[in-house]
Amino acid sequence: MPVIAPVPAARPARIPNQRDGAEDGVAAGTTVDHLTETYRAHYRSLLGLAALLLDDTASCEDVVQEAFIRVHSARKRVRDPEKTLAYLRQTVVNLSRSALRRRILGLKLLSKPMPDMASAEEGAYDQLERDSLIKAMKGLQRRQREVLVLRYFADMTEAQVAETLGISLGSVKAYGSRGIAALRLAMEAPA
C-alpha cells in the first residue's frame, strides 16, 4: 500500500512552552531538532509498523502522527536521545492496540439487525401445511399418533416412548413406521 508521508518544514519554529529560552540539552531530554530528524528518517518505517497492526492507511497515518505528538509532549522524559525511536515504536504499537480495541467495542455495541421476517404469503402457506398435518395426524390410529407425537414433537428416544406408553421397543418402531407411512399418504393425497 503506497503511503505518501508528509515531510515537515525544514526547521520548525521554537516551541513556545520551552522554559526561559534555554535550549533543551541531552540531560534535560530529547531536543525538538532530534525529534524532527527522527520524524524525517523513520516516518515511513513507523507507518509500516502501524500498517502491520491496523488495516487502513488513514488509521495508520493517524496513529503515527499521534505517536509523534505524544513523544513530542513527553520529550523531557526521554533522557537518552538514542531511545527516541524506541519510544516512538512502543507508542505506535500502544496506539494501534487502542484503535483496535475501540473498533471491537464499536462492533459489539452496534445493534444486531432484525431477522428477516417471513412474508404474509409464506406465513399463509406454513399455516396451511400445519393445518393439513394436524388433519392427517387426526386420521391416524391412536397408538400411531401417540408414538409420533412423543417421538418427533416431544423429542423422546424410542426407549423413552416405550417406557412412557408402557409398550415394547419393537411396538414403538412398528407404530412409528406405520404412522409415518400413513402420514405420507395423507399429505400427498389431494385435498
From TrEMBL:
The keyword Transcription regulation applies. It comes from the Bacteria. Residues 131-183 form the RNA polymerase sigma factor 70 region 4 type domain. Keywords: DNA-binding, Sigma factor, Transcription, Transcription regulation. Residues 39-103 form the RNA polymerase sigma-70 region domain. The keyword Transcription applies. GO terms for biological process: DNA-templated transcription initiation. Pfam families: Sigma70_r2, Sigma70_r4_2. Residues 1-16 have a biased composition (Low complexity). Gene3D superfamilies: 1.10.1740.10, Winged helix-like DNA-binding domain superfamily/Winged helix DNA-binding domain. Residues 1-25 are annotated as: Disordered. Belongs to the sigma-70 factor family. ECF subfamily. This is RNA polymerase sigma-E factor. It comes from Streptomyces chartreusis NRRL 3882. The lineage of its organism: Bacteria, Bacillati, Actinomycetota, Actinomycetes, Kitasatosporales.
